[in-house]
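Example record used in the benchmark description.
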Amino acid sequence: MGIMGMQRKIIFATGNADKMKEIRKILEDLPAEVMSMKEAGIDVEVEENGTTFEENAILKAKAVAKAAGTIVLADDSGLEIDRLGGEPGVYSARYMGEDTSYRIKNKNLIDRLEGVVKEERTARFVCAIAAVFPDGSVETATAAVEGYIGYEERGENGFGYDPIFYLWESDLSTAQLGMEEKNEISHRGKALKMIKEKLKDVLEA
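Model output (structure tokens):
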């Protein structure tokens, strides 16, 4: 399944610049150029109607792979809050509307947990990554990081729900961590490292 003779490019199906920074850092030692959809000149609208993070990641990767002809990675990730029945879950990006700012989304989630003690504010970030290879084969990896929802936003380093998601061991939000530290423990960092091993096998075959 090697891709000798092909341009060694990996396209990540996202338009999120913050996400691309994290992805590039983790995949920087692979023998391939890691590009966003925009950099690759691909504009594909994907209806994310899967019921799991993994289904959505595969849908995105397959749609972009049709236009790309090279390795395509896609992720679907989100926040699951136990007290809210797993919300926002697979609807994390679309929660309260895609154009609603995360400051408003985060405040809404904190407000909905008003009066709930720390021990019952358990939550996790989940990330599924799908890789579609030129021969049509698909590999996936899913990882999670456990934590709790804080009582206020803290930190400037993250994006999305990072400022309200706190780690048990440090009581810091993921927006208070440096990129290296975040990539070490994050759901996306863990899933990317798992898929990276599969990419190495293909790129070095």
